[in-house]
């Protein structure tokens, strides 16, 4: 893309891969991130500007966007972890909703006409079967509420002439280096703690929440490529929403068992009622056909490949060959 691309949350789990992909494609990139997720800011290099800052600081965000005058903004900065959002809903809404408005206001003031934001498959109402972009939305938790609100904020912003806005409804992204307390990082920590003390003859017992709940998992690299493809969407329509998902589901127990196998560990999963989230939907399967058709993008890495990359990147285990 001609001109600079500003990536908010560009030091984060997904953002860092988007930045790497954009740079590999020859784009100049700027990162705005407060490093609150626990990942370090990248080093400044030729073609990469890095600004430490919080998107909730409207004055700072406005100055950054005005100085950069980016050709486009990819807005990824957010509080992602659902239990963290539930525990502190004011903070979640402050970051995800107020912070997003700061970014959109800054874009409007600086004349930036092209914005992509990351939403979530969590915005859909609970149901059976694949969720398409036309499926009903109904948030069941604070995180989903904040993401659906972001979509409406962007749609309102895009009503002004000359603006172009895209929403990526990301499903469950997995990959190495996830700093959030999601399922896989939590399981890795618990396996690492148990592997040294467990007897070789006995399986490690993992107590989890719902074992049969299913999710549509997408590899980190595929998610980043999908966001970049969305940024390059040639459709002139001012506003559009696309699922970024695989169209396949996997249960919690199956996912965790596959990861343990890659680590050379025998496990037994038990469902602990105390660990079951009260608002945990039993299924979240996405329909990817719209993105396939419009963007020429589709998931290229199966779940097992993503799990192998996660296992290889974690230095606490001796992997099986």
TrEMBL record:
InterPro entries named among the record's database cross-references: Epimerase_deHydtase, NAD(P)-bd_dom_sf
Alphabetically ordered keywords of this record: Isomerase
EC number(s) recorded for this UniProt protein: 5.1.3.2
Family: Belongs to the NAD(P)-dependent epimerase/dehydratase family.
Native source species: Rhodospirillum rubrum (strain ATCC 11170 / ATH 1.1.1 / DSM 467 / LMG 4362 / NCIMB 8255 / S1)
Pfam families given in the database record: Epimerase (PF01370)
Pathway(s) where this gene product acts: Bacterial outer membrane biogenesis; LPS O-antigen biosynthesis
Keyword 4Fe-4S: no
Domain NAD-dependent epimerase/dehydratase: 5-233
Protein name (Swiss-Prot/TrEMBL): UDP-glucose 4-epimerase
GO molecular function: UDP-glucose 4-epimerase activity
Taxonomic lineage of the native organism: Bacteria, Pseudomonadati, Pseudomonadota, Alphaproteobacteria, Rhodospirillales
